[in-house]
Amino acid sequence: MPRKKQLPIFPYDFINEKADEYEKSKWMERNQKRATQLAVQYLFDTKLTNEKEKEPPFTESLLVLDLGCGTGFSTEVLINNGFKVIGIDILPDMLLKARLKNANIDLILADINYLPMRHKIADHLISISSYNFIIHDKDQNRERIKLLNSTAQSLHNILKNKGHIVIEFYPKDDQELQMVIESFIHNGFEGYMVKNKPNQKSGQTFLLLRKRVGNGKL
Ligand SMILES: C[S@@+](CC[C@H](N)C(=O)[O-])C[C@H]1O[C@@H](n2cnc3c(N)ncnc32)[C@H](O)[C@@H]1O
Q1: What's the pLDDT score for residue 216?
Q2: Could you report how far apart the first and last alpha carbons of the chain are, in Å?
Q3: Which residues' Cβ are closer than 6 Å to ligand 1?
Q4: What is the distance between the alpha carbons of residues 5 and 100, in angstroms, rounded to a whole number?
Q5: Three-class SS of residue 88?
Q6: Most ligand 1 atoms within 8 A of CB, residue of 40, 112, 133, 170 to mutate
Q7: CA dihedral for 84, 46, 177, 14, sign (positive or negative)
Q8: What are the boundaries of each domain within the chain?
Q9: Helix/strand number for the chain, H first, E second
Q10: CA distance 169 to 38
Q11: According to the model, what pLDDT value does residue 51 have?
């Protein structure tokens, strides 16, 4: 897959031969892996952990859900960092490629918006270049806000109390970015945003989130 100026269109750019192209693209692999490694660093960011000194994290016993794992580039990085990982994706075409690369990873075919996971199962949640697609079929802002809120609420339910979420995504504009941020704030999270190019309206954005203490939800 050649490097694109435009954002991919969901689901067309991830099905049939496009899933093949995605999987074979060296640029995409490099990009996804670099973003995931950065997300792992952010997971233990001192702003989220409140620790003065950064301890090397002991990751072996920690379960991370990779939300929108695609063909598994991000999953591979998480496994190499020592986490127990479950990769989750809505498209069989993408998930099948992850399975063919590695027969031993845990994969679930599911929608991020309706995760079939039990209460407080995850130590941490990571999502790389996927969260901007979860509202792809909602045209009205009202519908988008409703879905973003119910998804944030479900992520709050799945995540352990001291868990963190790192989302790397590509909001299409400031309004969409704001909607996503507010969905987390209204559903018991607090956190930070990191933008590599702060003057860019859309573009690569990281949200670093943790459960808010003292709101009655913990
Ligand atoms: C750019 S790919 C990123 C994949 C992955 N991070 C990687 O390393 O290859 C975006 C992925 O998000 C998935 N996706 C989009 N909407 C989704 C949803 N609602 N639930 C689960 N996965 C979704 C797509 O199927 C696609 O595989």
Answers
A1: 41
A2: 44
A3: 10, 14, 32, 68-71, 73-74, 89-91, 94, 111-113, 128-130, 133-134
A4: 29
A5: strand
A6: 133
A7: negative
A8: 12-44+70-211
A9: 7, 7
A10: 13
A11: 64
Neighbours of 99 (CB within 10 A): 16
Q: Cβ distance 73 to 29 under 8 Å?
A: yes
Q: 């999953």: which residue's tokens?
A: 75
How far apart are the C-alpha atoms of 159 and 147, rounded to whole Å?
18
CATH topology (fold) of 12-44+70-211 = Rossmann fold (3.40.50)
Specify the pLDDT at position 7: 84
Q: Which two tokens stand for residue 114?
A: 């309706």
For 204, list phi and psi in degrees, rounded to 5: -60, 125
Cα of 18 vs centre of ligand 1, distance in Å, is: 13
Cα 123 from Cα 165, distance rounded (Å): 9
Query: DSSP states of 100-146 as a string?
Result: HH-TTSEEEE--GGG----TT-EEEEEEES-GGGTTTT--SHHHHHH
DSSP state of 12: G
pLDDT tens digits for range 114-129: 999 999 999 999 999 9
| Residues with pLDDT less than 50, the chain | 1-2, 216-218
pLDDT score at 109: 98
